[in-house]
Structure formats: C-alpha cells, structure tokens
C-alpha cells in the first residue's frame, strides 16, 4: 500500500509539473472552446458532476473528423478516476443499457461522433476526485491517428444543457 501511495504522489507531481508548461490542451484551441488537431475538431465537451455517493460519472464530447482518413477514438483517461471506459448506450424495450466499446469509436472522414447525455459516453469509474459543479477537469482522449488530445472539461450538474435550452 505504501508503494501505491508513493506512485500516486509521483503521478500527481508529474501532473503538476506538466500543468505549468501548457494551459489545457496539447494541440491547439481557440476562444470558442473548439479544440483541434490537424484532423480532429472537438466541441461540446463537459463532465457530469459527481452525484451523491455514486462512485462513477460520465463525460461527453463531439468529435468531428476533418481529415481524409478514418480515425478511431481508442480510449480516454482522467486522473480523477481509477479507470475510464468508452460506453455505448442503447435502449431496448424502454430500458437503457450501457456496454463498453472495447474497440472504441470509429470516426469516418467528414463524420461526427457525438457523445452526449443519454447517449454514448465516456465512463469515469472509481472516482478518486469527485468532480464538482463549476470546476474543470482534464480528460485525455487517445486517437489511433491523431494521437492524444487533452480537454479541460467544464464540470456541471447539467452538462451540455445550455446548448439544448431546457
Ligand atoms: Cu457508462
């Protein structure tokens, strides 16, 4: 256990160190919150605040492939959670069911992948830090071709609700 604690501290130190050199993204971003690499553009990203004693939460993003080749969202990771999975959401006979997308999500050229509340999502399991409404939490997305892109996700009790005018 001591060993694990030391590792965690080392990871935190690394993260703190990393945070000094850049702001929030590893590629580039503009003031409208659009994060881009040469072939991937991301908008509408947010994380749901931790609810009650729920050990898990979810995060969302819209990914547009502006390149000429298919890419694939392979995985996501967050220091806030013990593990992170990509989940699909299906409804059968009125019952919602989540399943891990072990091969991730393919995004064809010119197409858009939408991860949103009530739909496919990024699942954050075993929260180590409980994301609070109004805070910002970094989530790293890993693409097969575009590589790693880190998003500073705004945390909300009602993620992305502003864009759908509730
Ligand atoms: Cu899920």
What does this structure look like?
Strands 1, 2, 3, 4, 5, 6, 7, 8, 9, 10, 11 and 12 form a twelve-stranded mixed β-sheet that branches. This protein has one helix and twelve strands; from the N terminus they run αββββββββββββ. The longest helix has 20 residues, at 2-21. It is globular and about 45 Å long. The protein has one domain: PCu(A)C copper chaperone (Immunoglobulin-like, Sandwich). It starts with a helix and ends in a 10-residue tail after the last strand. The relative contact order is 0.23. It has 166 residues and is mainly beta. 12% of the residues lie in helices and 48% in strands. The protein binds copper (II) ion. Residues 58, 87, 98, 121, 123 line the site of copper (II) ion.
Task: Give the key terms.
166 residues; mainly beta; Immunoglobulin-like; 12-stranded mixed sheet; 1 helix; 12 strands; 12% helix; 48% strand; globular; disordered N terminus; binds copper (II) ion
Task: Summarize the topology.
Layout: H1 2-21, E1 28-29, E2 35-36, E3 40-48, E4 57-65, E5 71-77, E6 81-92, E7 95-100, E8 105-107, E9 112-115, E10 121-127, E11 136-143, E12 147-156
Parallel strand pairs: 3-12
Antiparallel strand pairs: 1-2, 2-3, 3-4, 4-9, 4-10, 5-8, 5-11, 6-7, 6-10, 11-12
The structure holds copper (II) ion.
């Amino acid at each position: 256990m001591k060993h694990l604690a030391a590792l965690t501290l080392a990871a935190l130190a690394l993260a703190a160190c990393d945070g000094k050199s850049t702001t929030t993204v590893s590629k580039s971003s503009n003031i409208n919150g659009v994060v881009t690499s040469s072939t991937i553009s991301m908008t509408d990203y947010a994380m749901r605040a931790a609810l009650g004693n729920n050990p898990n939460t979810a995060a969302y993003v819209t990914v547009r492939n502006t390149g000429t080749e298919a890419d694939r969202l392979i995985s996501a990771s967050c220091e806030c959670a013990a593990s992170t999975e990509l989940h699909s959401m299906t409804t059968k006979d009125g019952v919602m069911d989540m399943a891990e997308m072990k091969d991730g999500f393919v995004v064809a050229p010119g197409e858009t992948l939408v991860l949103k509340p009530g739909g496919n999502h990024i699942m954050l399991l075993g929260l180590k830090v409980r994301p609070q409404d109004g805070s910002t939490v970094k989530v790293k997305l890993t693409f097969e071709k575009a590589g790693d892109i880190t998003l500073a996700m705004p945390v909300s009790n009602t993620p992305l609700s502003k864009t759908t005018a509730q």
